Amino acid sequence: MKVALFIPCFVDQLMPQVGVDTASVLRRIGYEINFPGEQTCCGQPAFNAGYWNDARPLAERFVRVFRSAEAVVCPSGSCTTMVRNFYPELLAATALRDEARQLGKRVFEFSEFLVKVAQRKDVGASFPYRVAYHDACHALRELRLKQEPRQLLRNVRGLELVEMQYCEDCCGFGGTFAAKFNMISAAMGEEKAASAVAARAEYLTSTDPSCLMHIAGILQRQNSPVRTLHLASILARTEAANELDSRTAASGMAR
């Protein structure tokens, strides 16, 4: 199968390596990647802020750009939710309503695609660290994805998956919520960061780059040793990459 890659704004602008790693994993398990260059924002920020008339043209563009795709894979639960769950409502009064509904059935969050469509829980990854998983709100509550990311992580060689307290609680980002209610957002993020520290995790991962960006900022300000890394970037790691890191680190110490 050829899959189309949908790259969210946060990945495109702030975390491009997540997109590269997503494609790398898909290719490793035998998929051909198509990246439509005409794609833009899915319209979620405007939609969530109540500006539906501004979000609608972006949704219509998305449908036209991806209409011929057999499957669309996205490394973000929130953007996948926007297309699958909210496009039918946003485009209800347009000629693209039915097409949007059908396309939504072919749009998958990355871990969802691997486990449910590709039927792969082991993608040949290696990551020898202690990792905690954060259940991002849209992936958990809208897409009903709870075990899929964990199943993938449990099959990563060398990885120790630890469950942290309050793993299902919102991290506080929430898009425009973080800007409008920054004190509440920061307090929620601090609780999530504290959970990762208490679990003695070396890395905190999730399906949503926006959550990780928010939590990473808090961890960095606290000078915490816990680092954040998107699920796709963990699954993209191999034993060869780990060995290269070790040799590079040893070389640096020698100098």
Structure description:
The chain is an alpha/beta fold and 255 residues long. The protein has helices at 9-13, 16-28, 44-48, 52-66, 77-90, 97-104, 110-117, 137-142, 147-154, 176-180, 182-198, 209-221, 231-235, 239-254, and strands at 2-5, 32-34, 72-74, 107-109, 130-133, 160-162, 203-205, 227-228. The longest helix has 17 residues, at 182-198. The mean pLDDT is 92. It has two domains: 2-117, Rossmann fold (3-Layer(aba) Sandwich); 130-241, Rossmann fold (3-Layer(aba) Sandwich), CATH 3.40.50. The protein is globular and about 50 Å long.
Tell me which CATH architecture of the largest domain applies here. Answer: 3-Layer(aba) Sandwich
Name the strands of the widest sheet in spatial order.
Answer: 2-1-3-4
Helix content: 40-55%
Give the helix/strand class.
alpha/beta
Q: What's the quaternary structure here?
A: single chain
Q: Compute the gyration radius: what is it? A: 18 Å
- Relative strand content: 5-15%
* Largest beta-sheet characterization: 4 strands, parallel
